[in-house]
Fold this sequence. Notes:
The chain is an all-alpha fold. It has two domains: about 5-55; about 60-95. The chain has helices spanning about 10-20, 25-35, 35-55, 60-90.
Amino acid sequence: MKTRRQFSAEFKAKAALEALKGLRTLNEIAGDLEIHPIQLSAWKRAAIEGMPQVFSNGKQKSATEDEALVSALYQEIGQLKMELDWMKKKSGVLSARPPRTR
């Protein structure tokens, strides 16, 4: 049984870039790299589809990440506040309030 070859991201990127240049045919490039032309086509397509993400400024992604972080932090604040109130109640701090003065 033949084991599958694993290719590094750098190798895939170089192969896809060579295919994107268009100076040689996919069959020529695939033959030199000893890979199947269909595999090279898949890497080329993945590179083309991924290019917009490379050039995006990341505002959309960071905005959703920020919202998730804020939500998680508010949840933690609420939990800590409840724990603090519970600890105050158990220790008697809440019942030993000083009297109000007018």
